[in-house]
Amino acid sequence: MINKSIIEAFTSIAREKNVDRTNLGTIIEELFMTLIRKKYGEERENFSVIVNMEKGEIEIYQEMEVVEDVVDPVVEISLEDANKLESDIEVGDPFIVVIDPTSFGRRLINTAKQYLNQKIRDIEKESIFEEFKARVGEIAVGNVHQIQRDNVFVNIDKAEMLLPKSEQMINDRFRRGQTVRGIIKSVEWKSKGPQIILSRSSNDFLKRLFEMEIPEIEDEIIEIKKVSRVPGDRSKVVVFSADKRIDAVGACVGMRGSRIQAIVRELNGEKIDIVNWSKQPEILITRALSPAKPLNLFIDENRPYCIAVFEDEELPIAIGKNGQNIKLTSEITGYTIDAVKKSEYEGIKKSTVYLDELDIISKEQLESLSKEEIFIGEEFLDADRNLLIKLDGFDSDVITNIASEIQKITDEQEQEQEQDKEQEQSEKNNEIGTEEG
User: Fold this and answer.
1) What is the spatial distance between Cα 116 and Cα 223, in angstroms, rounded to a whole number?
2) Which of 112, 131, 150 is the last residue of a domain?
C-alpha cells in the first residue's frame, strides 16, 4: 500500500535525529507490528509489514484462511466474501488481505509516533554509547551544562558527560556555559543510557595534553616514560628520546616555555617538573628529586629502596609540601625513598637493620612481611603486634625473638657509632694539640 505521507512524516523526524534510512525502515516495520498487536491482540502471528523506503511504500498483509462459517474474523474469511474478490477461491485456501496503514486511525497513529520517538531516542543512546566507548582515553571538549555539589555535567554535541568531584582538580572552579577539557575515562551503560565519565585529575589527562602540545611526542620522537600527579598542585613527567640530537626536556618546555605554559594554564597553574629519563637509578632519582639536589644516594635495587642525603636546610625542599616531592619521585622512579639530613645520616646508616639479612627470619616470613611493606628492623618494631601475629609463619614467640635480635644488632651498631665518634673526637684533639705545640 503506497502511503508516502506517513513515511515522509516519520522521515522528517528521523532526519532531525540523524537516524539513517535503513534503521528507520526497521523501526517503521516494528512500529506497525505494535499497532497490529494493539488492535488485533498480542498473539496474532498472521500479519506482516514490508517497508520500502526508496518508493515510500508501507505494505501490511493479513494472511487468512477461507472457511464456510467464520469463527475468528482476524484469521478467517468467509467463502462468500473471498469470492467477491477472487472468484476461484475454495474453502481451505489461504487468502491475503492488504491493510491500509491509515485504517488504524488517528489515535493509533499518534501512538505510533510516540513509539517512533522512543525508538529514535534509544538509537541515539546506543549511538552515543558506541561512539564514546571507542573514544575512551581521548580528550573531549564540552560546555558546562549543570553544576551540582559533587558533580559537573558537561555537554558535547548530543551527549552529556559527568565530571565527578573525584575527577576534578582541587583548584577547578566552574561556571555555567564554561568550556571544559578533560579525558574520557570510562563509558558504562546505565538504566537511563550511557554514562560518560570525564576526568581532569588522571595521569592520562596530563599525558594527552603533552601529546597535543608537543608534536615530537605525537610523532613518537619523544616518549613519555612515566607520569605522576597531585592534581592541580604538582606533577612530574619522565621523558626520553632515543635520538641523541633531541633534547627531550627542552622540546617539552618549548621556546621561552611556550609549550609547557600552555599545559600549565589548562591545569590552573599546576607545577610540572619534566625529568630526563635514565636507565641508571642514581641519575634518574637525582633528576626526579629536583628542585632539591641530594648530596648522596644509597640505593638498594633489589628492594627497591633509596636513602637520599641532603644538606640540612635543603631537606624541606626535598620532601616538598605535604611530602609531595618525595611521593611523586617515588612513584615515577619505582623506588621507596627516605630523605634525611646530612647531620643525621651517619646514625641512620649504622642503625638500619635489614630483615633479609637476619638468619632467624625464613624466606616465607620475609614474603609475609614484604606484603605489609615491612623491610627493615625499625618498621618491624613499630608494627602492630596484632597485625604481625596474623601473618603466615608468626606467633608471639617468633615475634619476640625477632624483635630481640633486631634490638641486639641495633645496640651493637649504636655502640660502634659511639666508638667511632670517640675515635673521631680523639683524632681531632690530637690534631689541635699538635698545632698548638
Assistant:
1) 50
2) 131
